[in-house]
Amino acid sequence: MITIAIDAMGGDFGPEPIVKGCLKALKNQHFTPVLVGKKDEILPLLPKSYRDKISIVEADDVIAMGDAATDAVKRKESTIYKAVELVKKGEADGVVSAGHSGATMTLATLRLGRLKGVSRPALVTLMPTKTGRRSVVLDVGANVDSKPEHLAEFAVMGGCYAEDVLKVETPSIGLLANGEEDSKGNEVTKAAFKLLEGYKGFKGNVEGSDIFNGSCDVITCDGFVGNLVLKASEGVASTISILIKEYIKKSPIRITGALLMRKVFKLLKKEIDYAEVGGAPLIGIEGCAIVSHGKSNARAIENAIYQAIKYVDTGVNGHIETRIAHLKQKEA
User: What is the pLDDT of residue 77?
Assistant: First the structure.
């Protein structure tokens, strides 16, 4: 049975939503959860009927959002350090944390190590598209400066993730650029383009609109650009929601139409709600690490756990190593 280590103290709202999310996941999936944190705060949140199904690893130190990510390496008694160590020791298959994202990525990379052939891991996010299928965008924050070979590796890893986890047969892969023409892009993307030419599924340059129109399954970029795309998308979604509410308030006549559209709005909200995705996988490391939003509610943690279980269950890491080896042969 798959075991998932969960940082119970890392989120903005303490252990309550994390424990609730864990309980919800247990009702729907067979797995072994290990909650890492302050036992005296976690235990009262667990119904007696679940206490024999959930292990607790004591950890008093919590990496605060304002702490430097590099400090996490030295703080061996912290919740995230101990959670990652469970994976390193083989006592857990994956880790989920809504805590300090930089600390989670740093520890996962340094303590678990990279997959064979992977130069740098990448953070993945799933974006809604008009087709109903989500697109894979990476990197969205793990690497602000990337070389061409890193982008090529991200493309390969994203393709494997789409194929194995999202079950997309022969996913299309694109490089995010300022135009679709082969001549577009900066020096880094142009060099990455050459490395990916001829790779199965690679369609060349894609634009920002392709993230959402469903024309491309995997969109590749460096972490600086990817993080800007992610934050801008979240901002646009939030603003549209506010504008719709204000528009309705200005005219009572529009309320009738709004009531009819309520179901549509609910579906739209579900598509853009990070809680429905759960978290961002750090892809390219040994094991599995899911980085969740600091403001994660129980639903987000529940979905993050499902993500971790599915990631481990599909064996995507082995697929990545095989595909990366083929890419390296092509480069040579």
Answer: 95
